Amino acid sequence: RQLFLFVSLIKKSRFEWLLEKATELGVAQIRPVIADRSEVKKFNLERAKEIVREAAEQSGRGTLPALYEPMELQNVFKEYRFFKNISFDPHGEPFRKDGYVREEKIGAFIGPEGGWSARELESFREKKIPVYSLGTPTLRAETAAVAVTALLLLQS
């Protein structure tokens, strides 16, 4: 299974931790997303690639995940239409993994601190992309990204 992680830009140190853990868990692609509530608008792709390379080496992973420059959310919708997309937000429906067990390619959208804006949530609905919650605790963006990655990629 391939997981494509579309994650809102967050503070540098937290995003770097997310890159490391997502790489260790086996994500296929990471596309930073510029969301309405993104805290950061700058992104150092070369530094990010170095973090990903080191994480892949440390975890014994043979291939590196593809890593891209940040993209506005609306442009992501236009470019990535070839697989099952899901989104995560604290106000979504409870997530059930069983609906995605057989999917070969999954795109998972992880929002910024404070969640996706009302406008962005409406965009997900328009695109028929379900919005799920990971449960009662409100997770930081990087924790949610790692939790989603583990849920979808690790064997159960």
Largest sheet: 7 strands, parallel
Mean pLDDT: 92
Contiguous uncertain segments of 5+ residues: none
Order of helices and strands: EHEHEEHEEHEH
Separate helix tally: 5
Structural class: alpha/beta
Alpha-carbon distance between the two ends:
14 Å
Tally of strands: 7
Q: Outline, from the CA principal axes?
A: globular
> How much strand content do the residues show?
15-25%
Radius of gyration, rounded?
Answer: 14 Å
Task: Describe the structure concisely for a colleague.
This protein is of the alpha/beta class and 156 residues long. It contains five helices and seven strands.
How would you describe the overall organization of this protein?
This protein is of the alpha/beta class. 37% of the residues lie in helices and 24% in strands. Strands 1, 2, 3, 4, 5, 6 and 7 form a 7-stranded parallel beta sheet that branches. Strand 1, helix 1 and strand 2 form a beta-alpha-beta unit. The radius of gyration is 14 Å and the shape is globular. It starts with a strand and ends with a helix.
